[in-house]
Write a structure and sequence with these properties.
The protein is of the alpha/beta class. It has helices at residues 11-19, 37-44, 85-95, 113-120, 133-142, 175-185, 205-214; strands at residues 48-50, 54-57, 69-72, 103-107, 125-130, 151-155, 166-172, 189-201, 217-225, 228-235. It has a seven-stranded mixed β-sheet, sandwiched between helices.
Length: 237
Amino acid sequence: MAYIPTAQFGHKRIYDVLGKYGMENSFSYSQVVNRNWNEEWEKHYEPIYVDDRVFVRSPFHEANTSVSYEIIIQPRMSFGTGHHETTQLMMEMMLTDNIEGKSVLDMGTGTGVLAFLASRMGASEVIGIDNDENSVENARDNLKYNDVEHVSFLQGSAESIPSRNFDVVLSNITKNINVALLPHLVKHVSNRGKIILAGFLNFDLEEVNQLVTNFGFALERNISKGDWECLLYKKLD
C-alpha cells in the first residue's frame, strides 16, 4: 500500500512498470477523502519513553517532570515522532555517550527530535538538515515548544552542510541514502569525533560496517530493536 499526491499520480506509468513482471492488472487505486488528518492522528498518538530518561510528547499531552529529558514534538507530515524503532535506537545510543559541550550535525532531522535531545544533553551547537521543505518548517516550528539554545535547521542535503567539522554526526535515514551521504558526512567529523547511524536492517549490518570502517572509523558499539540496527563509530587518529 502506498500514498502519492494526486498531481503526481500516473496510472499508465504504474501499469507499464508492473507490466514488465506480468502484474499490470494486479493493482487498484482510489482517491483518499480529504479530512482533518491531525485530528485523526491525535486520536491514536501516545507519548513515548526511551530508556526511562527521555519523554517525547506532543503539545496536547501532559508534561512529565520526572524524566531527564522531555521533548515536545508536533510532527505534522515529518518523520521522527520517536515511535519508530530507528528513532528510539538513535536516542538510546545518544544516551550512552557524552554530548555535553559538543557540536552536533543531525542529517535528515525530520521533526528535529534528535536535534532537541542533543541540545537537552548539553550540546554547544546543533544544526539539523533535511531535504524536505515541510520537515524543516516543522522542525523550526517545534523550536517554540522546546526551551533550547543554539539549535538551527537548514534545508538541503550534503551541499548544505557547513564547511566545518562536528564532534558528533547523527544520520537516521534509509540505508541507501545513508550510504550515498557517507562520503560527505565523514569529511565533517572532527578528529576523534563520533558518527551514529540508523535506518537500516540487521542484514545490512556487515555491508554498512565495512563501508564506515573503510573511511577510518572504528565501531564502538551497536544496538538493535526488532529488525533495525544502530551503530556508533569513532574516528581514528
